[in-house]
Specification:
Length: about 325
């Protein structure tokens, strides 16, 4: 038994209603049902180029999605105006003088508009406002930079490869140092000499430190020299006197040298005139002979009976004095 026409119509109507409901739900889901029924304000920003930005791309602020791009269009040569629909609930938290820049959702993701910056205390973002723009690094620029870095890295690697090859072949200073034992021993000896010099410098530093410590130790000569003005003055006076004595000795020696060189002086005559020297020797010999005779005469006088009492009296006085 076939269903009645009314029942068939009800079934068809229910089917259509369910289908329309499913279709509407899918549309709303794909179009973000929250955004569809959220109140929005529209602001604008003018960019010199939009780098592939499209209608429907997201608008972000402080890491949160706050709207979408609603319209793109030229307003002049090299000027593209972008209309942004921003959630009215998020607008109070965005500065009115915020800047807009074009970025990307990840390294190669969709384009987005980022709202950032602004002055503390400024008014909130208002409907119809025109935002300032900020330049951003595009994906193409990042890739170009990476390409240049790769080229530079390749050049550096090639140069490093050449350097390592030359070193392994014994070329250059480093290569000879690694390959030649003699050069290595020379360098080792130089390092040892430097180490010895360093040790000597350490010893010298310790000696200087000890001397400096003595300068501050009371009772030592360095301390007296550096702290006692009287001792320092005496040392200075002594040095001056030694200097004067040295000058006098120099003058004396110079005078003696001049006297010796002059044959007309007595000393010069004795040194240069042989006859005068012989006379002096003869005179000295006669004086010695006369002195000996005088001593004999005095000895004889002591035994003379006329002078003997005098000498005995003198001996007694000398004995009493002892």
């Amino acid at each position: 038994m076939s269903p009645s026409p009314n029942r068939r119509a009800v079934l068809v109507g229910l089917f259509v209603t369910v289908a329309v409901a499913i279709l509407a739900g899918g549309i709303l889901t794909i179009g973000d049902i929250h955004s569809t029924f959220t109140r929005k304000i529209t602001v604008h920003a003018v960019f010199p180029e939009v780098s592939g930005l499209q209608v429907g791309d997201n608008v972000w602020a402080a890491g949160l999605k706050v709207g979408t791009v609603s319209e793109l269009g030229f307003v002049g040569p090299g000027e593209v105006q972008v209309a942004l629909e921003v959630d009215r609930d998020a607008a109070p938290f965005i500065h009115g003088d915020a800047l807009a820049k074009i970025g990307s959702d990840g390294l190669i993701g969709n384009r987005i508009v980022v709202l950032h910056g602004g002055t503390d205390g400024s008014s909130s973002l208002a409907d119809g406002a025109t935002l300032g723009t900020d330049s951003s690094v595009s994906t193409e620029e990042v890739l170009d930079t990476l390409q240049k870095n790769n080229e530079n890295l390749l050049a550096i690697t090639s140069d490093l490869k050449d350097v390592v090859h030359k070193v392994s072949e014994g070329e250059g200073t480093v290569g000879r140092l690694l390959m030649e034992d003699g050069l290595y021993e020379d360098v080792r000896g130089t390092v040892a000499s430097l180490q010895q010099a360093s040790d000597n410098a350490v010893d010298l530093t310790h000696a200087i430190a000890a001397f400096a410590a003595d300068l501050n130790k009371p009772g030592t000569l360095p301390h007296q020299i550096t702290h006692d003005t009287t001792t320092f003055a005496k040392l200075t006076d002594t040095v001056d006197r030694l200097k004067e004595a040295g000058e006098a000795a120099k003058q004396l020696v110079t005078g003696l040298a001049d006297t010796v060189k002059d044959p007309n002086t007595p000393v010069g005559t004795l040194l240069h005139d042989r006859e005068a020297g012989g006379d002096v020797k003869q005179t000295l010999a006669q004086l010695n002979e006369s002195t000996a005779l005088l001593a004999e005469d005095l000895e004889a006088l002591q035994h003379n009976f006329l002078l003997r009492p005098y000498f005995k009296k003198k001996e007694r006085e000398e004995a009493k004095g002892k």
